[in-house]
Amino acid sequence: MKRRNCQNPPIFDLAVLFAGLLSLSLLLPKGTVEAEIADHIVARVNNEIITLGEVREAGADLFQQIETELQGEEQIQKRREIEQEILKKMVEEKLIIYKAKKLKITVGEEEIARSLEDLKKQNSLTDLQLEQLLKQQGLTPEEYRKRIKEQILGSRVVHMEVRSKAQVTDQEIEEYSRKHPGEYLFPEDVRIQQIVLLCDEEADPQTEEKAQIQARYVLDKLKAGEDFAELAKKYSQDPSATEGGDLSYFKRGELLPPLEEAAFKLKSGEITPIVRTKYGFHILKVVEKREARMPSSTKLREEIKEKLFREKATKLHEEWIKELYKEFFVEILY
Asked: Rounded to 5 degrees, what are φ and ψ at 7?
């Protein structure tokens, strides 16, 4: 069955589009597939073929995962869905490369060499270690260089044909900001320090009384003006004690309910009474309380611009992929 205009292409993060497509085929474990199944052709793109073995090899990690998580018919159905999705991505990968070649986009050997050096540096690999890793995956250095070249080609053609055309105007940013006033609102939060005297809920009365007396003793010192951080280092039984009890910022819903209720009642610089939780007796200091607020106008504009750009680029990409299906010969046999 020939299909010139196959299923709608998936939505990709275009900043990593081509790297994402190639990640299905670069440095993946080899699966053991019987020859007659592996050689079964599932798609043709121009004069190239894609076999079922290649699809299953590309999705080896995913297939291994579903084999441990699913059984019977559910496993078979999920495997089929994954195979079809991988096949679609592999077809798109080839279409993008054909388009790049048609537009006579080139990649120099020095660019490939730079990419290889970056890869080795990022992963702390020597030439020998990289070669051994590729060998484990059934790839030669030459084959891997070819794939890097295709990755760069794909990235360039996507930028030329899609990203460069996704322009966002100041008027669009202003209009979006007016229509979505609360979307980028930073919620109210507090930065807190704490001192904890541990005491389990099921502790005997004597142990509980001892912990409570010590908590009162520390609170009296705080009321007398002693430094919270120093007292936390000396008395707190929480890992944060070494940092003076500093726990950084919390929004509502991120603290234990008794601590949240106590902390959000206070202003910056104030200290809570002793608060009992299932862990023990807590004393909190609100280092800073920040009301709900909008980001700076510059940051807000940047975030809105990025959101609108991604929306436009995604739509343009979907339309572009559809055109590639029409421009080149595509036959899906699976």
From this structure: -55, 155
> Looking at the chain, which runs of residues are DSSP E strands?
41-45, 48-51, 189-198, 246-251, 275-277, 280-290, 330-332
Count of Cβ atoms closer than 10 Å to residue 166 Cβ: 17
Q: Give the model confidence (pLDDT) of 285-322 as tens digits.
A: 999 999 988 777 888 899 999 999 999 999 999 999 99
Phi and psi at residue 45, in whole multiples of 5°? Answer: -130, 110
- Same-domain pairing of 110 and 199: no
What is the tens place of the pLDDT at every residue in 257-266? Answer: 999 999 999 9
- CA distance to 143, 150, 272, per residue, from 140 (Å): 5, 16, 65
Q: Are 262 and 284 in contact (CB under 8 A)?
A: yes
The answer to the question of residue 194 being in a domain is yes
Spell out a b/e string for 101-134, using b for 16 or more CB atoms within 10 Å of the CB, else e. Answer: eeeebebeeeebeebbeeeeeeeeeeeeebeeeb
What is the reported pTM? Answer: 0.60
CA–CA separation, 311 vs 13, rounded Å?
10
Q: Among 47, 48, 82, which residue's Cα sits nearest to residue 65?
A: 82
Same domain, 30 and 106: yes
- Specify the length of the chain in residues: 334
Q: At a CB cut-off of 8 Å and minimum separation 6, what does 235 contact?
A: 195, 197, 214, 218, 241
Burial (CB count within 10 angstroms: exposed 0-12, middle 13-18, buried 19+), residue 216? middle
Domain span including residue 283: 189-290
